[in-house]
Amino acid sequence: MSSEATGSATKPLNSFTHVEAAGWGRGLSTLLRITRMNLRHPWQVAFAIGSTLVAVILQLLIPQLLGRAVDQSQTAIGGGVTGAAAEQALWSLALLLLAVSALRGLFTMAQNYFAEAVGHHVAYELRLACYEKIQRLSFSFHDRVHSGDLITIGMLDVEGVRMFFSTALVRALMLTMLIAIGAYVMISTDPALGLVALSFVPFVAWRSSVTQLRLRVTWLGLQERLSVLSRVMEENLGGTRVVRAFAAQAYEMLKFDRASKSALDLAHDRVDIYVPNTSAMTLSFFFAMGLVLWIGGNKIIAGEIGVGTLAKFLTFMTILQMPVRQIGLMVNAFARASTCGSRLFSLLDQDITIRDAPDARPLEISEGTLRFDNVSFAYPGSGNRAILKNINFEARRGETIAIVGPPGSGKSTMAHLIPRFYDVTGGAITLDGQDIRKVTLATLRKAVAVAQQDAFLFTTTIENNIAYGDPWAKEQRIERASESAQLHNYILGLPAGYETVVGERGVSLSGGQRQRLTIARTMMLLPSIVVFDDSTAAIDAATEQRIRAAVRRFANDRVTIVIAHRLNSLMHADQILFVDNGEIVERGTHRELLAKRGRYKALYDLQVRPGDDIVIAYGCAR
């Protein structure tokens, strides 16, 4: 990816949707950066600018030709020129005018085409840069940034930057030439009449700019309110079963109505800004045109100018009216590009905290020994509040390590540290003596597979979901993995078998089926270390027992980490770690921990023969 797209500086990213007034320096640097990106497509830029220059010159010829035609007609009538000669002259001018207009249209089309081409090339590069950046940013970044904000950047902000070249730069060039050359021609022809003809320009330019900037502010507010509206709808659709189960349709309708009414009120405010200002600009134009007709008519009567000259002035005014109104759109395009570009580049300039070290080498697995060596960890932005403290354990190939403990004790965090979803803040994690921070991420994550607690599925076939980690896997390998996860017979019973398309996020499957599918996805990869992070919580006891048997066969030649709340999922482990408040407070086999009569024993009694006295004992132990 290009350096302009990805940037070189690192900036903090606090909020994407909240817009603050950027200083002139930052806004200018953002626009310069966008301009440099546009200039990476030089021949499209050259064609767009060249076409603009030719189109402007041709457009400025039209009033001259019209004025000349009127003068020739008047001369022919007044001078007694024969009808044939007058008609011939008018036909020549008409054909010339038609040719100039056609050429102007062709070059205007070329200008629009190449200007849009530049913008779309830049947008394509930025979308790829955004998506690639999002793929590489760490879990800690995604923990604090809403996914809707990232979608806004990848769509709306990229669109704002895309339009900069065609709507701002090219339009600025076109407007400058039209107004400057048109004003020069009119004032040099008749200074007084020229100034009157141009009298509407400052007012329209001012009102257009103010209107567009005010509309820009309200549009940003409307965009935020529409985002809220989208979130309400997305949340309702995602939780529709909960809504129906609790008969909360009326409450959800009220919530949606409030969000929708808020957006509607701001839309009405935009109409109140747009309509009066547009009417005022139109009135100023026609008022100036009326003055030109009155003053010009008197000059014609006095013999100071001809009718063709007045026609030329009126045509110039008509040509200038729309470009002058577009000054506001141009100012808005600059402001929008500055705002959108700032947010976009804030994302692209984010520092990637989890990355390969400069001297990173591929991971080499020999013995397959995993070691936590005095590991401590605190989440970024948590004020250094330790989630894990001084964690030490070792797991060799063929061993199963179980981790158990109360919610929030740090069990899943330990699982996320092994594939470097986060980096440890103290100590080290090693594989065969290699610090995982000093090996390449690609080889590390190929060696470590995590069946996560959240069973996320993609909207595609069951086969593609299972083979997600290796899309070119053979069918037999996919089927063996699904058999191990006790899912194969269920899949064969479906009308389309493995080609069955699951719904959004796997909504067409039960919770247990989704978890079994993610287990199959993990077991298909044959990693050196596999982590099951409470991945059987939604599976019934009988199915879980069969899966455990398959997992034990699967675990013979790899390290297996099992995190669970149900102890019957852990009893077979070679070592059980009881974690509480980020520390290992007990360790041993199932029998050894029962003999200690500590916290593990209290939890075991609670699950096997629950009673109030045991609950109290376990609560005290916690």
From TrEMBL:
<dbReference type="InterPro" id="IPR017871">
    <property type="entry name" value="ABC_transporter-like_CS"/>
</dbReference>
<feature type="domain" description="ABC transporter">
    <location>
        <begin position="370"/>
        <end position="606"/>
    </location>
</feature>
<comment type="similarity">
    <text>Belongs to the ABC transporter superfamily.</text>
</comment>
<keyword id="KW-0067">ATP-binding</keyword>
<dbReference type="InterPro" id="IPR003593">
    <property type="entry name" value="AAA+_ATPase"/>
</dbReference>
<feature type="transmembrane region" description="Helical">
    <location>
        <begin position="89"/>
        <end position="107"/>
    </location>
</feature>
<dbReference type="Pfam" id="PF00664">
    <property type="entry name" value="ABC_membrane"/>
</dbReference>
<dbReference type="InterPro" id="IPR011527">
    <property type="entry name" value="ABC1_TM_dom"/>
</dbReference>
<dbReference type="GO" id="GO:0016887">
    <property type="term" value="F:ATP hydrolysis activity"/>
</dbReference>
<dbReference type="Pfam" id="PF00005">
    <property type="entry name" value="ABC_tran"/>
</dbReference>
<dbReference type="GO" id="GO:0005886">
    <property type="term" value="C:plasma membrane"/>
</dbReference>
<keyword id="KW-0813">Transport</keyword>
<dbReference type="InterPro" id="IPR036640">
    <property type="entry name" value="ABC1_TM_sf"/>
</dbReference>
<keyword id="KW-0547">Nucleotide-binding</keyword>
<dbReference type="InterPro" id="IPR039421">
    <property type="entry name" value="Type_1_exporter"/>
</dbReference>
<feature type="transmembrane region" description="Helical">
    <location>
        <begin position="301"/>
        <end position="320"/>
    </location>
</feature>
<dbReference type="InterPro" id="IPR027417">
    <property type="entry name" value="P-loop_NTPase"/>
</dbReference>
<keyword id="KW-0762">Sugar transport</keyword>
<feature type="transmembrane region" description="Helical">
    <location>
        <begin position="168"/>
        <end position="187"/>
    </location>
</feature>
<keyword id="KW-0812">Transmembrane</keyword>
<dbReference type="GO" id="GO:0005524">
    <property type="term" value="F:ATP binding"/>
</dbReference>
<dbReference type="InterPro" id="IPR003439">
    <property type="entry name" value="ABC_transporter-like_ATP-bd"/>
</dbReference>
<protein>
    <submittedName>
        <fullName>ABC transporter ATP-binding protein</fullName>
    </submittedName>
</protein>
<keyword id="KW-0472">Membrane</keyword>
<keyword id="KW-1003">Cell membrane</keyword>
<feature type="domain" description="ABC transmembrane type-1">
    <location>
        <begin position="46"/>
        <end position="336"/>
    </location>
</feature>
<feature type="transmembrane region" description="Helical">
    <location>
        <begin position="43"/>
        <end position="62"/>
    </location>
</feature>
<keyword id="KW-1133">Transmembrane helix</keyword>
<feature type="transmembrane region" description="Helical">
    <location>
        <begin position="274"/>
        <end position="295"/>
    </location>
</feature>
<dbReference type="GO" id="GO:0015421">
    <property type="term" value="F:ABC-type oligopeptide transporter activity"/>
</dbReference>
